[in-house]
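I hope you will forgive my troubling you with a question about protein structure. I should value your view on which stretches of the chain appear to form regular backbone elements. Here, with my thanks, is the record as I have it:
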Amino acid sequence: MINQANGYSEELNGQDLESVEAQYWVDLKDALDRLEKNDDFKRVILDGYFKDKAINGVSLLATDYIKQNGLRSEVMEALVAISNLEDYFVTIKSLGSQAPDEDEE
């Protein structure tokens, strides 16, 4: 079987599949590491989205307007979206940091 998704094109079988999958996560972690060093990424995503937008969303939950108009679920969905992206980054870091030997044990 040949896997051409995500830029990987090679014959795959048992051990090779594990190796390709592990390399996929390592490559994603490397890319995320580079992004996190980028000042624009820090400003827009890490500070603007993960911090400022999250704090503003939490603050909105307590406002009378949001409560009276039944808008809390919309605010909560925005907060869940922030959490999902942050969790994806944590997953990338975790799976991309695993040493190849760890899976064999």
Q: What stands out?
A: The chain has a mean pLDDT of 88.
